[in-house]
C-alpha cells in the first residue's frame, strides 16, 4: 500500500513539474498567433484571441530564411550521421575488443566530458582561420564530431548485450566486422536513435560556434540567422514575430522528440541499466 501511494505521489509531482515547465512554452506559442497591436497592450492570456498567422508569414518573408534553414538541415544531418558512425565503432571497440592502452584511452574519452566547449573556442577559431575554412559547412560540422558522451553511451549499451550472441556468431566464423554490422548495430537501434536525436538537437540549436565561424549572412544557420534579425523585429515588427521565430526554430526538434520518444526512453534505460 505504501509503495502504491509513493508511486502515485511521484507521478503527481512529476506531472506538476511538467506543467510548470510547459507554461512558458505554451505562452510563447500562444503569443506567436496574436497580432502585435494586441501584444503591445498586454501579453497576458493563454488563448490566441484574436488569432493570426501574420507573424509566421512575416518571418518567412525574410529573404535568407530558406537558406538559413537549408544550412541547419545540412549541418545537423551530416553531423548526426558522422557522430553515429564514429561513436558506434568506438563504442564497440571499447566494449568488445582488446587493444593496447584500452583503459587509459577510455578514461581520456570520458575525461573529455569535463572540458567545456567554450574553453577551446579560441584554438578552434584560430585553426580554422589559418586553414581558410570559416564560412563553410566543414567548419560548422567538424568541431562537433568529437562527442565523448556518444562514445560512452554506445560503450555502455554494447556491454549490456549478452556475449553469447557474439560467441554463437564466431562459431559460424563471423568476423568482428560482420558481428558489428549484422548483430550489434541492429540491436543498438534504441541507443543509436537516442544519440542521434541528442546530436541533431545539439547541431540544430547550436548558436555560439556558428556565430563565431559563420561571419557571412549567406552561411548563417537558422538559430544565428533568426537571432540576427530579432533586434529589428523587436523594435519595429513586434513581439509576435519574435515568438513566431522562436517557434519556427524549435518546431523540428519538438516534432522529432514526439516521434522518437519511445526509442529515447529505451536507449537511456538500457544504457543506464548496465
Automatic annotation (TrEMBL):
Ranges of residues in domain ABC transmembrane type-1: 69-260
Compartments it resides in: Cell inner membrane; Cell membrane
Membrane topology listed for this record: Multi-pass membrane protein
InterPro entries hit by this protein: MetI-like (IPR000515), MetI-like_sf (IPR035906)
CDD domains listed in its UniProt record: TM_PBP2
Subunit text: The complex is composed of two ATP-binding proteins (UgpC), two transmembrane proteins (UgpA and UgpE) and a solute-binding protein (UgpB).
Annotated source species: Marivivens donghaensis
Bilayer-spanning residue ranges: 9-30, 68-93, 105-128, 140-158, 179-201, 242-265
Pfam families noted in UniProt: BPD_transp_1
Role description: Part of the ABC transporter complex UgpBAEC involved in sn-glycerol-3-phosphate (G3P) import. Probably responsible for the translocation of the substrate across the membrane.
PROSITE patterns linked to this entry: ABC_TM1
The protein's name: sn-glycerol-3-phosphate transport system permease protein UgpE
Keyword line: Cell inner membrane, Cell membrane, Membrane, Transmembrane, Transmembrane helix, Transport
Superkingdom, taxonomy of origin: Bacteria
SUPFAM superfamilies, per the entry: MetI-like (SSF161098)
Keyword Cell inner membrane belongs to the record: yes
UniProt family annotation: Belongs to the binding-protein-dependent transport system permease family.
Amino acid at each position: 500500500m505504501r509503495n502504491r501511494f509513493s508511486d502515485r505521489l511521484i507521478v503527481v509531482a512529476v506531472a506538476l513539474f511538467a506543467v510548470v515547465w510547459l507554461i512558458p512554452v505554451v505562452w510563447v506559442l500562444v503569443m506567436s498567433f496574436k497580432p502585435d497591436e494586441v501584444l503591445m497592450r498586454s501579453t497576458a492570456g493563454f488563448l490566441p484571441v484574436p488569432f493570426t498567422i501574420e507573424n509566421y508569414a512575416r518571418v518567412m518573408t525574410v529573404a535568407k530564411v530558406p537558406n538559413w534553414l537549408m544550412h541547419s538541415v545540412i549541418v545537423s544531418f551530416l553531423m548526426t550521421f558522422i557522430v553515429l558512425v564514429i561513436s558506434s565503432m568506438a563504442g564497440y571497440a571499447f566494449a568488445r575488443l582488446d587493444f593496447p592502452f584500452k583503459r587509459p584511452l577510455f578514461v581520456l574519452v570520458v575525461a573529455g566530458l569535463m572540458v567545456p566547449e567554450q574553453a577551446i573556442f579560441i584554438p578552434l577559431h584560430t585553426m580554422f582561420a589559418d586553414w581558410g575554412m570559416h564560412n563553410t559547412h566543414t567548419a560548422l560540422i567538424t568541431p562537433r564530431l568529437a562527442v565523448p558522451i556518444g562514445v560512452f553511451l554506445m560503450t555502455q549499451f554494447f556491454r549490456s548485450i549478452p556475449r553469447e550472441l557474439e560467441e554463437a556468431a564466431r562459431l559460424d566464423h563471423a568476423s568482428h566486422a560482420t558481428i558489428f554490422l549484422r548483430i550489434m548495430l541492429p540491436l543498438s537501434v534504441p541507443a543509436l536513435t537516442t544519440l542521434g536525436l541528442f546530436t541533431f538537437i545539439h547541431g540544430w540549436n547550436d548558436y555560439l560556434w556558428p556565430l563565431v565561424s559563420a561571419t557571412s549572412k549567406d552561411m548563417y544557420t537558422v538559430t544565428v540567422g533568426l537571432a540576427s534579425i530579432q533586434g529589428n523585429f523587436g523594435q519595429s515588427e513586434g513581439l509576435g514575430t519574435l515568438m513566431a521565430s522562436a517557434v519556427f526554430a524549435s518546431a523540428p526538434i519538438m516534432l522529432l522528440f514526439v516521434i522518437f520518444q519511445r526509442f529515447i526512453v529505451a536507449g537511456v534505460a538500457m544504457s543506464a541499466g548496465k
